[in-house]
What we know:
Order of helices and strands: EHEHEHHEH
Mean pLDDT: 91
CATH class: Alpha Beta
Strand content: 15-25%
Pfam family, one: ATP-synt_F
Radius of gyration: 14 Å
CATH superfamily: ATPase, V1 complex, subunit F
CATH topology: Rossmann fold
Family: Belongs to the V-ATPase F subunit family.
Number of helices: 5
Largest sheet: 4 strands, parallel
Number of strands: 4
Distance between the termini: 29 Å
Structural class: alpha/beta
Organism: Aspergillus ruber (strain CBS 135680)
Protein name: V-type proton ATPase subunit F
Keywords: Hydrogen ion transport, Ion transport, Membrane, Transport, Vacuole
Amino acid sequence: MTAQGRQFLAVIGDEDSVTGLLLAGIGHVTDGPEAQxxxxxxxxxxxxxxxxxxxxxxxxxxxxxxIVLINQHIAERIRASVDSFAEPFPxxxxxxSKDHPYDPEKDSVLKRVRRLFGE
Length: 119
């Protein structure tokens, strides 16, 4: 798997995080009758299966996504999928949100780095 053709960020997050990133210019909608967005707004009513589907679409189906940003508290809802994703592209990064501080002990990337260094 290469970085060739991967030109977009994707985001799975709460309304504030997604809105901020969309205002920064990351938003993209594919052409065609089955248009796909590169973001998912998650709230308390969002089903875990919907989050899981978006994560799988961004990481396995779409070949134009280079980085997936996901709020850490949302990643906790699909922790098994986030932790088991080990491909180099797209990179999956957990980010804090306004209401949920970042906890490095839960971050899947930092866990892998610690294992690599034998910690």
